[in-house]
Specification:
Blueprint: E1 6-7, E2 17-21, E3 24-31, E4 34-37, E5 45-46, E6 51-58, E7 68-72, E8 77-78, H1 81-90, H2 104-114, E9 122-128, E10 135-140, E11 146-150, E12 157-158, E13 161-165, E14 167-169
Antiparallel strand pairs: 1-6, 2-3, 3-4, 4-14, 5-6, 6-7, 7-13, 8-12, 9-10, 10-11
């Protein structure tokens, strides 16, 4: 199954409301029985979410419950692929977990919206080759190309992402 991501731009036609949550104050846009989380500008810090805002993703089947904002960590490591996967999963930023390496499609989104916050070198993705599990995909922020390398290759950057659901129930 082919995965495609659609960039979602924040739509501020409704007033932004500050809501108190368990982890602090969150800016939201009321939308009937749900609320849309209001992110900052592309590449800007989103402290409540533990990183930098790099874009929004809408599911291809228009299932709004699966739409999410993408946040990238400010920190990175130079690691082989397996170590990068472990590092991303274990990462906690200001007590916030739930990090992973990004998909290839998410890398393209980040290249389009926020390449200024990335070093212009290859970064690991979470994807391995279907026919060879010893190879993993990398994405080069210098030219926007995706290629695959042996998973023990050195010198590639691991940068973790979090997926934040766009919609929240108003009873949160």
């Amino acid at each position: 199954m082919k995965t495609s991501l659609k960039l979602v731009l924040p739509n501020y036609t409704s007033p932004i409301v500050r809501r108190r949550t368990r982890s602090g104050v969150l800016n939201v846009i009321p939308r009937g029985d749900v609320s849309l989380i209001a992110p900052p500008d592309f590449g800007d810090p989103w402290p409540m979410m533990g990183g930098l805002f790099v874009g929004g993703v809408s599911s291809p089947d228009d299932d709004r419950a699966r739409d999410y904002w993408l946040v990238v960590s400010r920190c990175h490591r130079v690691l082989p692929w397996y170590a990068a996967m472990t590092w991303a999963c274990d990462l906690r930023v200001n007590g916030i977990g739930g990090w992973t390496l990004p998909s290839r499609a998410e890398m393209s989104l980040m290249y389009t919206t926020s390449r200024k916050v990335f070093k212009l070198v290859p970064h690991w993705t979470k994807a391995q080759l279907a026919w060879d599990s010893s190879e993993a995909f990398s994405f080069d922020f210098k030219d926007g190309f995706c290629t695959y390398l042996h998973d023990t290759s050195e010198g590639l950057i691991a940068r973790a992402v979090r997926r934040i659901p766009m919609l929240m129930g108003n009873d949160e």
